[in-house]
Amino acid sequence: MNVVQRGLRSIIRKPVKSILLLLVVVVISSFFMAGLAGQSASIKTQDATRQAVGATFRLEGNEANRHKRLDEAAKKISEGEDGTYNGVIFKHFADGSSMVKTDNSFETIKPEDAEKIAQVDGIEEYNLITVSTVVNPVNFKRIEDSDVDQSNDLGGVNIRGNRIMEMDMDVSAGKIEIVDGRMIQENETNVCVISEELAQFNQITLGAELQFNNVKDKENSRIYSAKVVGIYKTTQKIKPVMSGDSYRSENTIFTDLHFPEKASGEEGNPLFQYAIFRVDDVRAYDRIKAEIEKADIDWERYDLIDSDGNIKSMAENFNDMEKMSKMLLVLVSAASFLILVLIFLFWMKNRTQEIGILMALGESKKRIWLQFLTEALLIGSIGFVLSLGVSPLLSNATASYLARQTQEQAAADAGSVSTDYVAPELTIQDTEISITGNMVAIDAGVIAGLLAFSVTIAGITIMRKKPKEILSEMS
Where is it mostly found (predicted)? Predict the structure, then answer.
């Protein structure tokens, strides 16, 4: 009887042992495949705060790429030293603490990139929207809750600049309605539209000149004036981007595109958070989207969001997703090897009598080892085939978990960087994985290698003994 026949009979004769090994192989193979699939997972996310409105596209910064650029800057500046690289500023203090700050050039949507997309056939018009910028109201008062401790608030109002005000996301969504005057027109300068609450509170009328300056240097910074050309009422509260009375809906003031940078002391250094592109013909929406994605810009820097808020990320998968997947592969491999060695050690220890009899009948140690290896590979082959049915589900679940962990880590890291930029609040909508033939081949090779190596390591404890020692253990 050859080793294959003996192996098959042993598998059938000891079903509990065989089923245990089968289940272990299924689990190992499935998790290893999940680690492979996670490295190339496609993450679909959705903007949780605002959706694009109508037949439009929205361009905004990609958070994964932002962190990648932060890491690149950190590598360029020697550890423990002050320095600036590509808009990232590192500063260390005598008490041992440090600060990382980014400037507007690091965070902004580049206007030249927006202009390139605007030239795509089918784009009717485009808008640039600045980040909500807190500034100091010089000759009027803001609205605030007198019962709330304002010590942690900047004590200002927030202004938002638009290239075309009617294309502002809150305006086009119908959240505000002009009750007096008009909206700001393209190419106007030093003009603003205020809420009716703020107008009534300060008895402000159309044509009034409101004054603003840098909220961080109220006493010494230059004062800029903006003429009130419109007063609006809210049909739906404008969701504040941050907590505090500075960001409350009534204190939101719409301005021309470049006024926020002036009033905040950053003249000539704008911070554009979004670019909105209006489609000429909604029937050509998909075709226009494909053309936009061909635009010659650095797509890794951006996310492109469609009318339903769905995001096609142009950056590398999802921040540290690949690193986490590789870590999973290493952990699975190490744990699998340890578990398999323990299983085969237990297996051989309980088969000492069988080994002794075979050796007494003149069977060589090599053929006995080949029998055990054959049993392991036969069970492993069945387990591997079964794992192919489990792997897609486990891979998708694992990739989703890793994506959420990466997103949470990115949010935590963002809190350690000082900036006026507020990253979009994104939710993971879907995670897509693709299991390729190459992944299946790698998984099969790893399982076979782990089984062979584990049988060899476990077999050493038996095979190094002399036949007399094994026979004496039988008695």
Answer: membrane
468, two tokens: 């007399």
Handedness of CA 448, 454, 458, 459 (dihedral sign): positive
SS3 266: coil
Quote the Cα angle for 258-264-266, to 5°.
65
Could you state, in order of their start, the residue ranges of all structural domains in the chain?
Answer: 3-39+320-474, 56-75+100-313
> Alpha-carbon distance 43 to 430, whole Å?
6
- The answer for residues whose C-beta is within 8 angstroms of residue 175's C-beta and 6 or more apart is 234, 235, 236, 237, 238
Residue 382: partners with Cβ closer than 8 Å, 6 or more residues away: 22
Amino acid present at 365: K
Residue type, 62: N
∠ CA 453-458-464 to the nearest 5 degrees?
115
Q: Which helix (H) or strand (E) holds 134?
A: strand 133-137
DSSP 8-state class, residue 240: P
Rg, Å, the chain Cα set? 33
pLDDT one-digit tens code per residue, 401-437: 655 555 555 444 444 444 444 445 545 444 556 667 7
HEC-encoded secondary structure of 180-234: EECCCCCCCCCEEEEEHHHHHHHCCCCCCEEEEECCCCCCCCCCEEEEEEEEEEE
Rounded to an integer, what distance in angstroms lies between the CA atom of residue 137 and that of residue 157? 7
DSSP annotation of 95:
T
- How far, in Å, CA of 268 to CA of 262, rounded? 8
Q: What is the largest CA-CA distance in the chain?
A: 109
Look up residue 217 and give its two tokens. Answer: 């240097």
Task: Give the count of beta carbons closer than 10 Å to the beta carbon of residue 155.
Answer: 16
Judged on CB neighbours under 10 Å (0-12, 13-18, 19+), 330 is exposed
Quote the pTM value.
0.61
